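Onboarding guide, step 5: your first structure request.
Type a short instruction followed by the sequence, for example:

Predict the 3D structure of this protein.
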Amino acid sequence: MGIFTRFKDIVSANINSMLDKAEDPEKMIKLMIQEMEDTLVEIKASCAQAMATKSKVSRALDDVQYRVDDWENKARLAISKGREDLAREALAEKRVFADEHDRLTKEISQLEGIVAKYQSDIKQLEEKLTNARKKHQILLQRHTQAQKSYKAQSVLRKNDNVDAFARFDAFENRIERMEADAQLVNAKARPSLEDEFSKLEGDESLENELAALKAEIENKKAQ
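The system replies with structure tokens like these:
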């Protein structure tokens, strides 16, 4: 089932309101345009057919008018020749074609009204279709812009994440360097095994020197 059930639905439709209520505006506008285009083709075909019929009737009317004039001329000729009997018959034939002339004239008038109505409908529908196509173009531009914006935001978020990871890695490296420096300081502050033995050897030499000095003093006292 289509969006529009008849032509006047299309003409009276508020496209903006319909799009605002649609779950998928882009899909809705595409369906609108398709139905408008199909309806426009049908109306143009009907208009062309009505115009063709009008042309056909116009040719028939011209032929009937010729017949009316011809029988009137014959009636005049008969009267001029004193043949009233023939004149009456000629006028009777003229009346038949005159009646047909009146009928065809009315038919042409009706066809002209139909063609004018079709042309008016075509104009209104083309205006609606132009408006719908503009709306569709705007929706496409908005959709394209939204996609570009989404892509840009995704890239920015990705870059933010990359920056965050980079900052984390730098911070981790900094901590590791600080830990290494601390270990190096601790290693320098704590004496090595060789340093301990060197200290012991130094202490022993000092004690030996002290003992020798004391012995020397004692010896001098004893003398």
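Each response can be followed by summary notes, for example: Residues 1-5 have pLDDT under 50 and may be disordered.
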